[in-house]
Amino acid sequence: QVQLVESGGGLVQAGGSLRLSCAASGRTLSRYYMRWFRQAPGQEREFVARISWSGDNPLYADSVKGRFTISRDNTKNTVYLQMNSLKPDDTATYYCAAGDVGSTNYWGQGTQVTVSS
Question: Maximum distance among all alpha carbons in the chain?
Answer without folding.
Answer: 40
